[in-house]
Amino acid sequence: MPSFQNIPVLIVDDRPENLVSLQELLRDLELDLVQAHSGNEALRQALHHDFALVLLDVQMPEMDGFETAELLRRNPKTRHFPIIFVTAGLREERHLFKGYEAGAVDYLMKPIEPEILRSKVRVFCELYRQRRELERVSLELERKHEELKLKHEELAQQNRKLQDTYQELEEETAQRLLAVEELRHKDQIMLHQGRMAAMGEMLNNIAHQWRQPLNVLGLKIQELGLSYDLEELTPEQLHRNINKVMEILRHMSQTIDDFQNFTAPDKEKCRFSGKEVVEKTLSLIGESFRAKGVVVSAESCDEVTIFGYPNEYRQVLLNILMNAKDALAERHTEGARIVVRLWREGERSLLTVTDNAGGIADEIMDRVFDAYFTTKDLGKGTGLGLFMSKVIIEKNMGGRLSVHNVPEGAEFRIEV
After folding, report:
1. Which residues are paired to 354 by β-bridges?
2. Are the CB atoms for 53 and 10 separated by under 8 Å?
3. Could you report the per-residue pLDDT of 284-313, keeping only the tens digit for each?
4. If we measure between CA atoms, which residue out of 235, 231, 283 comes closest to residue 256?
5. Burial of 239 (0-12, 13-18, 19+ CB in 10 A)
6. What is the dihedral of CA 327, 197, 377, 187, to 10 degrees?
7. Using only C-alpha atoms, what is the Rg of the chain?
8. What residue ranges in 8-115 does DSSP mark as E strands?
9. Where is the Histidine kinase domain (predicted)?
C-alpha cells in the first residue's frame, strides 16, 4: 500500500468514537490526521493547514456539515479543499444535492466500508501531491524563466558582437585584397587572404545559423511565460521546453566551437576524420545555403581517416561548396542541389562535390585554378579560393585537386 506520510487530512465529527474509528481505518496510509470536534473547530484548523481532504460529518450540533462546508467554500484560502461528507441518515436525493451545492465532491454512507474510504482518500491525497509538485515546479519555472531571459539577452548581445566582428573582418578583407593585388606573386599572402575571405563566409553562415535558434528561444520563453500566467503549465511542458532550450543553447555553443576550430591554424600534419570534417562543414553552412534555395547533402560518406591539415582541408571543402552555391545562384537553377561523397580507394581518400549548375565551359576549364581568375562580377569574388585550394591539397598535403563536368553540372574531386 502506498504511503502518504505527513499529507494533512482533516476529520470532523462531534463524536470522539467516530474520530477514533476514522483514524484507525486510515492508519496504514500514514497521514497527518487533524481532528476537529465541531464546525467552528474545523474552520479554525483550516486556517492553519493546507488540507488534502476534509472528511466532514453532516449531522453536528450548533453548526452542521452543510454550513461548515459553505463557510470553507467562501474563504479564498480554503475553497480548494475537497470535502467528502460522512452521513448515516441523509440518503435522500435532496440532501445529496444540498451537499454538492455546499461544496462537497463526494459522500460516504455509514457504516463506512473501509476499502472504499481508503480508496477515496488515496485519490485525493495523490491529487494533493500532484498539486504541491506543480506549485514547486511553478516556482522553479519562475526562476528558470528569469535565467532564460538573461541567457537570451546575453546571446543577443553576443550575436551583435558577432555581426560587428563580421563587419570588421569584411573591412580587413577589403584592405588585404589591395595588398594581394600588389603582391600577387607571393603565394603566402594569397593563401592568407583566401583564409580571411573564408572566415568572413563562416561568420555569415554563423549569423544565419543563429537567427532561427534565437527566434525559437524567444518563442519558447514567451510560451512558458504565457502558460505560467494562464496557470496552464504542466511539469511535462516545463521539462520539454527547458530541454529544447538547452538543446538550442548547446547547438549555438557548438557553432562557436566549430568556428574557433576552423580559424585555428594547423601547426603540423595529423590524422583526422574526413567524415567529421564533412559533417561539421555542412552543419556550419546549411542554414545560409537553404536561405539561398540550395540543398546540400552528404551521401555515401564513409568513415575515412586522412593524414594532413584538417582545418586547411575543411577550408578547401568550404571554398568548393561556396563556388558551387554561387554558380547555382547566378544561373537561377531550379531544384539547386550539391552532393558531397567521401570514400577510400586503396591508400587514398577521395571526396567529390557535385552540383547541378550546368557545368563549366570548355574554354575556361583549364583556368579555374589560376590565381585571380573569376567569372563573377567585379567585387563578388577574389579569384583566390580555388587557387588556394589547389595549393593546399597538392603542395601542402601531397594530394590532387581536379574538376570535370558531369551530365548536370560540375564535379570537384579531392584525392589525399
Report:
1. 339, 411
2. yes
3. 788 778 888 999 999 878 899 999 999 889
4. 283
5. exposed
6. -100
7. 36
8. 8-12, 32-36, 53-57, 83-87, 104-109
9. 205-416
Give the rounded distance of the alpha carbon of 259 from its chain centre: 21
Q: Which pairs count as long-range contacts for 263-269, CB under 8 Å and 24+ apart, including other chains?
A: 263/199, 263/202, 263/311, 264/311, 265/311, 266/309, 266/310, 266/311, 266/312, 269/307, 269/308, 269/309, 269/397
pLDDT of the residue at 379: 45
pLDDT at residue 90 in the model: 61
CA torsion angle 65 69 75 78 (round to 10): 100
Residue 279 near residue 298, CB atoms below 8 Å? yes
Ranges of residues in the chain with a pLDDT under 50 are: 378-379
DSSP string, 256-318: HHHHHHHHSPP-S-EEEEHHHHHHHHHHHHHHHHHHTT-EEEEEEE---EEEE-HHHHHHHHH
State residue 3's pLDDT score: 65
What whole-number distance in Å separates Cα of residue 416 and Cα of residue 293? 31
Q: Rounded to an integer, what distance in angstroms lies between the CA atom of residue 57 and that of residue 17?
A: 13
